[in-house]
Known about the structure:
globular, alpha+beta
Amino acid sequence: MVSWRDTASEAAQGDLDGLLDTALTMAEQRLSERGEFYPFALVVNRSGGTEIVAAGTGSAQHAQELNVRAVVGMRAEIRAAALVVDVRLPESGGDGIDVHLEHAEGTALSVLEPYRVEHGEVIAGGLEAFSAQRRIWQ
């Protein structure tokens, strides 16, 4: 089976790995502090720096849509992006952190981390990665 790493440059792999690590760390920190988190996005700018995008207000779904629009509007200035949302897992009834990752080179994938919060501590399950439809660089 061909992995996304087989077709992505080392630079793209580094960008996406860094975004995933930062996204999960931020989401887990917010879960630990508040028991939930609001949708947010992260981008890697052209110089390699990571920036937070939190364009949303109102409902979580509306915030997610606004974050997508904001990141799409930044395409010319960024090389990678992560859209991060807290999701309910229908199979288990549990919760998960869904991270949609895209790179300007063409890679698009979704990574899901099931979790539960016990006494303010996030207990994370194993990561599952899937190829995804491009939403930012269509």
